[in-house]
Design brief:
alpha+beta, binds 6-diazenyl-5-OXO-L-norleucine, 5-stranded antiparallel β-sheet, Beta-lactamase, Glutaminase, about 300 residues
């Protein structure tokens, strides 16, 4: 199969859709992003790479970072992590407060904001006092990606910190239920810094290969997580990776995937490859509008879905 030709076709087909949707305005530093951008990248388990459009442009990975943090937390806490963060789809928006109150401070899954904040809290506990959770997540991304230049964007994390009222509320709610171990302010600061990590679609597709290969990076041969744990992360990406649009993403794309409000989406084709797409205008659920369409076209054209 000529994957570059497929990517070029997709690029052509989605170009008329650019401009639909809206960039994430609730994070002021992201509100000025040009909505017309599009990039798509594929890295195969054997290291072959294909890209079109702005695939080397770095952007704020936002909630995609939750995959890396969750991997580290699952490695550190194993099944004990499920006592703090459950594994069911929420059917609610990524920053919803209502369910958390009803369910006594236990977030439904690690990809909604409450769950990712609890994961971040668990990493702060795990790495202190000698290391910081932020550095460990970044170092982990360096290992997954095979590049040491990736870092976070301070302007974006500070902008989120100034407007992070909902996330601070979620953390305080968990604290009130006893599901929070550290200082709310410092965990939220770490959470925002992790969300503001900047990567390109090319780097993202490379860095998720461990999930396409049972927890071991197929290129460096480094083992990051066990095969059953990789299965679970992929399952959670399939069922929860797009919040209240997870069912729609599974229906249309048929792959484990994780979105971020920066406009990125990563998807995993187990045993074969990882795909990342960047297009910053979002649909009403906070997922890249054109990115979702591009991935839908990809699995339709290639038959490379898990179903
Ligand atoms: O906490 C937030 O709201 C953002 N830092 C991340 C949200 C996000 O990416 C949701 N994804 N689609």
């Amino acid at each position: 199969m000529n994957l570059l030709a497929v990517l070029k076709e997709i690029h052509q087909e989605v170009t008329p859709l650019l401009g639909q949707g809206n960039v994430a305005k609730y994070i002021p530093a992201l509100a000025k992003t040009d909505p017309m951008q599009f990039g798509m990248a594929i890295t195969l388990n054997d290291g072959q790479f294909y890209g079109v459009g702005s695939y080397e442009k770095t952007f704020s990975i936002q909630s995609i970072a939750k995959v890396f943090s969750y991997t580290l937390a699952l490695r550190a806490y194993q099944n004990d992590l499920y006592k703090r963060v459950w594994r069911e789809p929420s059917g609610t928006a990524f920053n919803s407060l209502i369910q958390l109150e009803k369910e006594a401070g236990i977030p439904r899954n690690p990809f909604i904001n409450a769950g990712a904040i609890a994961v971040c809290d668990s990493l702060v506990t795990h790495y202190s006092p000698d290391k910081t959770a932020l550095n460990e997540v970044i170092t982990f991304i360096h290992e997954c990606c095979g590049e040491r230049t990736i870092t976070f964007d301070q302007a974006v994390s500070e902008s989120e910190m100034e407007h992070g009222f909902r996330n601070i509320a979620l953390a305080n709610l968990m604290k009130s239920f006893g599901n929070f171990e550290n200082d709310v302010h410092s965990v939220i600061e770490t959470y925002f810094q992790v969300c503001s990590i900047a990567m390109s679609a090319k780097q993202l597709s490379r860095s998720m290969l461990y999930l396409a290969n049972n927890g071991t990076d197929p290129i460096s041969r480094k083992n990051f997580i066990s095969s059953p744990q990789a299965k679970r992360i992929n399952s959670l990406m399939l069922t929860c990776g797009h919040y209240d649009a997870s069912g729609d993403f599974a229906f249309r794309v048929g792959l484990p995937g994780k979105s971020g409000v920066g406009g990125g989406i990563v998807a995993v084709v187990p045993g074969k490859m990882s795909i990342a797409v960047y297009s910053p205008a979002l649909n009403k659920y906070g997922n890249s509008l054109v990115g979702t369409k591009a991935l839908e076209l990809f699995t339709t054209k290639t038959g490379l879905s898990i179903f």
